[in-house]
Amino acid sequence: MSVPARILRPDPLPARPGPVTGGRPPWWRRSGAPLLLLLSGPTVLLLAALDAPARAVPVILYVLAVPGIAVVRLIGVADRLMETMLGVGLSLALGMLVTQIMVYTGVWSPMAALAILVAIATACLAPALRRGAP
After folding, report:
1. C-alpha angle 81/85/87, rounded to 5°?
2. Sign of the torsion angle spanned by Cα atoms 3, 99, 123, 128
3. CA dihedral for 58, 63, 11, 77, sign (positive or negative)
4. Which of 47, 56, 88, 115 has its CA 20 to 30 A from that of 25?
5. pLDDT for residue 134 is more than 60
6. pLDDT at 103
7. Domain extents for the chain?
8. What distance in Å separates the CA atoms of residue 88 and residue 24, rounded to the nearest whole number?
9. Burial degree of 63 (CB within 10 A; 0-12, 13-18, 19+)
10. Percent of the chain scored above 70 by pLDDT?
11. Closest by alpha carbon to 23, among 34, 13, 8, 31?
12. What mean pLDDT value characterizes the chain?
């Protein structure tokens, strides 16, 4: 079973004209979303390590969205709403899978689980950052 062609993003990404690069936008415009998602991982790990009452909100939002969206970006879904919805569902599934594996093996640690989710998101976003995907 394959993914319908209308859902997938065309492989060479169409370049919007940029003033400096002669047709392609600068690298920070092409890789803005993956760069922000990559930088959010260490920030969330730092917030989780602090003993602050407001740390729960960014950590929960990160776990609910970023790992799944990072994996979905590898697929190349063209529709942003579908990418977001698939990303949230996949984030929940990844979080539960990591947690269950850690509990079954007897090494449960919330910080380690968060670090594993950050590592998954980083590994999936590195190729998108390298190729400069939007």
Report:
1. 115
2. positive
3. negative
4. 88
5. no
6. 96
7. 27-131
8. 31
9. buried
10. 66
11. 13
12. 76
Q: How far apart are the first and last CA of the chain?
A: 27
| Of residues 47 and 81, more confidently modeled | 81
pLDDT of residue 28: 44
Largest CA-CA distance found in the chain, in angstroms, rounded: 56
DSSP string of 74-93, one letter each residue:
HHTBS-HHHHHHHHHHHHHH
The rounded distance, in Å, linking the Cα atoms of 105 and 92 is: 20
Residues in the chain: 134
Q: Which residues are CB-neighbours of 107 under 8 A, at least 6 positions away?
A: none
Distance CA 83, CA 102 (A): 28
Comparing C-alpha atoms, which of 87, 91, 108 is closest to residue 99? 108
Q: How far apart, in whole angstroms, are the C-alpha atoms of residue 74 and residue 17?
A: 25
Structure tokens belonging to residue 116: 């594993």
